[in-house]
C-alpha cells in the first residue's frame, strides 16, 4: 500500500466534507473533555475523602444542665466527673481509637466565639450553654459505628456525631455532578458516532466511482477502506487533542489561575497536574480508536463495490 496515496485520499475526504469533519472534531472533543473531566472529578472526590477522612473526628457530646431540662437523652442529669473519667478510660481501651482530646465548656465557648463572634446570635450564648465533649481520632475513620454503638445512649452522653456526615453531602453533590457529566458525555458520544457514520457514508458515496475502479483493478477491501478509516481516525485524533487542551486549560484556570481555587480554598486538597497528564493518553487513544472503529463498521454497510 502506498502511503502517499492513502494520505492524499485522506486530504481529499477532509476537504470534501469539511463542515461535517469540523462537527465530528467538535463533538469528539466535547464528549472526551466531559469523559476526562468525569474521571478527574472522581479522582478529586477520592483525594478529598482520603484527605478529610484522615482529619475528621468522632465527637462525643456530654450532657449539661440545659440538656438535662430539655433533652430526654439527658433525663438523668448533667454528666458527672466519674462518668467523664469512665468514658475517657473506655475510649483509651478501644483498639480503634488513636487519640482522645477532651474539650471543656469554656474551651468550646472560646472556639465558638472565634468562629461566630460577629453574628447576632453569638451574644446570646453563654459558657454554661456549651457542651463538654471528647474529640476522638480513629485509626480507621470507617470504624465510627464501633464508637457510636459503645457510647450512644450512655449516661452522661447527649449524642455521638461523626464529622464525616458533614462532608458526605459535599461528596454526594460532586458524585451527582460526575454522573451528570457522564450522561452528557454519553449523549455527545452518540452524536459524534452518528456524525462519523454520516461523514463516512457521504465520503464513500462521493468517491464511489474511484472505489469501483479500484475494485476492478484488483484492490483489496482493506486497501479501499483504509483512507476512509484513516480519515475518521484523523478527525477523532484532532478532537482528542482539543479535549486534552481543554482539560489542561480547565486545570490551569480553575485551580491555579483565573478562579484560583487552590488559593481561595486552601483547606481542599486539589488533584495535581500529574492526575490530569496521566488521563491524556487515554483520551487520545479513545479519540483515535473510536472513530476508526465506527468508520470500519459503517463501511461494511455503505461501501459496496
Automatic annotation (TrEMBL):
Name of the gene encoding the protein in the UniProt record: ftsX
Domain ABC3 transporter permease C-terminal: 183-301
InterPro entries: ABC3_permease_C (IPR003838), FtsX (IPR004513), FtsX_actino (IPR047929), FtsX_ECD (IPR040690)
Residues annotated as domain FtsX extracellular: 56-160
Domain of life: Bacteria
Major location category of this protein: membrane
Function: Part of the ABC transporter FtsEX involved in cellular division.
Membrane topology field: Multi-pass membrane protein
Listed name of the protein: Cell division protein FtsX
